[in-house]
Amino acid sequence: MGNARARKIPARLVEDEDYQLRHERVAGSDIAKAKADVCTRLPPGREGGRRASRVEEVPATAREILALAGRLLADRVELVVMEATSDYWRMWYYLLEAAGLSVRLVNPSHARQLAGRPKTDRLDAQWIARLAEMGLLRPSFVPPPEIRALRDLTRTRLMLVRDRFREWQRLEKLLEGALVKLSSAVWSLGASKSARAILEAICGGERDPGTLAALASGRVAGGHAAVRQALDGMLLGDHHPVLIRMHLDHVTLLDRSVAAIEDEIEAAVSAIPAAWGISADGVPAADPGPGATALTADPASPGSALVRLSHLASIFDGTASSVANIT
Length: 327
Description:
Layout: H1 2-6, E1 26-31, E2 35-42, E3 52-59, H2 62-74, E4 79-83, H3 89-98, E5 103-106, H4 108-113, H5 121-133, E6 139-140, H6 145-177, H7 182-185, H8 193-203, H9 209-214, H10 223-231, H11 239-276, H12 305-313, H13 320-324
Parallel strand pairs: 1-4, 4-5
Antiparallel strand pairs: 1-2, 2-3, 5-6
């Protein structure tokens, strides 16, 4: 026992890096539908003092959010953290990001798993800010603006293509009810020019199966005889041509919409390499593009965060002047 005491090692202070202060100036936001509680954490005002917290309630309007961005820029906030609350976070994230602030979106379930989370929105904002300043929240992936725009375009195209497919399904169901078995003679109503020509002729008043079958291409499986057999026994009422025309017109409109949005998608994809500062061949471009503009130290320079914020704020009356005051 005496030998054990003789070999006693003195205690040493070991710092836990996971809980060290990672960010001196942060803001945490608890977002609701109509407002957000924002807590800004700043260094102490005097040597040896405590860190300062400013908690405010900000309405969910563009003018108020841009005014908040001006205050955060004036405080030289390094990081703004917010929880992914439904879709309410988008307005806050996009405007604060566009103003030049570093914004992170975090999963609410991650913050809830850490012990000590309070129950009220106001205290929740302080809790998020304190976790953010210690680096305890993992950010979620939010695509950059160029990718967000491309994603909107591709998702819209997908919805339009699905709508077009459903329109052809409705038309096929209508034809089956009129005993028009055209879909069994051609491989696809939507992709077959023969089917479209026959349907246009039916809308024009043609009812003779032989005449209609003659409009089909000779490459149709089974030939004209198979198409004529599919059209024999048609029971077309007065309303059928009207409804067929409506479906065909809707399909034509959707075809044009899909073609137009595909052009937009191609243009958006072509613009992304320039925004990265890389040419289509993968080499640095002579003109790096708007996406490569870096923030500079001069607050009056065109690429600075304050100038960009002033540009955004100029859209809303009365906000630009308040932003200009912080320069």
